[in-house]
Amino acid sequence: MDLHDALKKVSSGISMHVPGHKNNTIGFLSDIKIDYDLTEVPGLDNLHEPEDILKELNDTLGSVHNCYAQLVVNGSTTGMLASVHALNNQSNDFFYIGESHKSLYNALSLLNKQPKQFNIDLLKSGDVIVITSPTYYGDLLDVTDIIVKAKEKDVRIIVDEAHGAHFNVTRNFPRSLIHSDVDVVIQSYHKMLPSFTGASVTFVKEKRLYEKIMHYINIFETSSPNYLVMASIENALHFYNTYNDEIFFKKRAELIEHLKQNNIIVETVDDPAKLVLSIEGFSPYDLERSLRDVNIYSEMVSHRGVLWCLPLLHYGDTYPFQELLSNINQLNIKKIKDEKIDISKLDGKVAVETITPYPPGVPLILEGEFIDIKLLDEFVTKNVKIEGLRKNLEYYKIEV
Ligand SMILES: Cc1ncc(COP(=O)(O)O)c(C=O)c1O
Predict the structure, then answer these.
(1) pLDDT single digits (tens) 26-69
(2) Ligand 1 midpoint to CA 366 (Å)
(3) Does residue 330 sit in helix, strand or coil?
(4) Ligand 1 centre from 367 Cα, in Å?
(5) What stretches of the chain show up as alpha helix (H) in DSSP?
(6) pLDDT digits (tens, 9 = 90+) for 350-386
(7) What is the percent of the chain where pLDDT is above 70?
(8) Distance (Å) from CA 188 to ligand 1 centroid
């Protein structure tokens, strides 16, 4: 099977994962023609120094949250790399709150720094806090007091809101932290809104900081930004500004009821667009595998459960909702063979490469740290890709 065949197969499935257009059944991406894959010819502006239509798009994005905005085609990873570099100085520290994505670790490693666990007593003027909220699972962190106290100490705050681009879309969705006293908010448009993979927006409160971040975005971002991705951000913005959540909440309730009738335990979280599923007598890995057998592709699986990213259903969408319900009826949950990988021989060794299960992309063991295999326990099945694991196994000549 080549890549085309694999894409054909998976895209014919029912998507409960990102990107938010769910195999082009949500939103209006069909308006974007492949012919629009152009470059910076006259009339199309330049993303690295936007002055015309791209500046207008940035301004419109910013006006949604009353701040400066820059559209980015290389994902929130680029927004994080740029923001960290823009806020770095010789003597400041970066503290993290929540489960930080590898992009934060990577950004700091380029500066020979590592993020430190948040501790209010250690904060000094000029330091930076990076808050990751919502989590991958759609939980919100309660950071209101922290933001107030941090600001009293003249600390800068970056919010990794990669999973929250749909926040504030209507009043029934959570509130974005952009409306708190923070400096930068980075959102992956592609994750929950209907835009192409890679689409992201960096929102900045102050002009000077915005310009500094732009400087670094231009260093980290491709010099050939993809116009299809940019156009998809414009589409997603229109979607966001006109979204009516009536169908979404009606069908969400129907789906939850249907899952329960099929004996699936449904955990709801702060973000209504996420559900975490489990089932008694089986592991979440069994459930995820069995869902795939009926053509339903989930976002992630861990000990906590199977994560679904729900489609932002709307009038005129073509999401296969009835097919989803009927495929759930056909579920036949089987125990999968214990697909655990035995990595016990790695225990106690020094990691020669950072080890990061993906998804969620949160590093668990950093290069140079001792490997504690207990930290990896819930991920070492053949279902989860663990970046860096192979390199460590090869280095220590361990066969699994
Ligand atoms: C919390 C978090 N931050 C940042 C990112 C990076 O986002 P992107 O894929 O848009 O580069 C991810 C990706 O999964 C993420 O989970």
Answers:
(1) 999 999 999 999 999 999 999 999 999 999 999 999 999 999 99
(2) 18
(3) coil
(4) 20
(5) 3-11, 53-65, 75-87, 102-109, 144-152, 189-192, 207-220, 227-242, 246-261, 284-293, 321-329, 389-395
(6) 999 999 988 889 999 999 999 999 888 877 776 778 8
(7) 99
(8) 7
111: left (phi over 0), alpha (psi -120 to 50) or beta: alpha
Instruction: Kindly report the protein residue whose alpha carbon is nearest to atom 10 of ligand 1.
Output: 75
Q: Which amino acid is at 161?
A: E
Looking at the predicted structure, is the pLDDT value of residue 339 above 80? no
Distance CA 180, CA 4 (A): 44
Q: Is the dihedral of CA 99, 103, 109, 111 positive or negative?
A: negative
SS3 274: strand
Q: Is the dihedral of CA 267, 16, 279, 258 positive or negative?
A: positive
Q: What type of residue sits at position 282?
A: F
CA 284 distance to own-chain centroid: 21
Task: Supply the DSSP string of 39-70, one letter for each residue.
Answer: -S-TTS--TTS--SHHHHHHHHHHHHHTSEEE
- Residues sharing a CB contact under 8 Å with residue 130, sequence separation 6 or more, in sequence order: 80, 84, 94, 95, 96, 97, 100, 104, 115, 157, 158, 159, 160
Q: What is the mean pLDDT of the chain?
A: 95
| pLDDT at site 376 | 85
Res 337 pLDDT > 90? no
Mutate to test the pocket of ligand 1, among 81, 84, 103 (most ligand atoms within 8 A of CB): 103
- Residue 77 Cβ inside 6 Å of ligand 1? The answer reads yes
| Whether the CB of 132 sits within 6 Å of ligand 1 | yes
pLDDT of amino acid 341: 79
For residue 78, the CA-to-ligand 1 centroid distance in Å is 10
Q: Please report, as a single letter, which amino acid is at residue 244.
A: N
Q: Kindly give the interhelix angle for 53-65 and 227-242, rounded to the nearest 10 degrees.
A: 40
Dihedral, CA of residue 32, residue 37, residue 299 and residue 253, to nearest 10: -10
For range 129-157, the mean pLDDT: 96
**359 CA: nearest ligand 1 atom:** 14
- Which of left, alpha, beta for 223 (phi over 0: left; psi -120 to 50: alpha)? alpha
CB 370 within 8 A of CB 349: yes
Structure tokens at 204: 């900045």
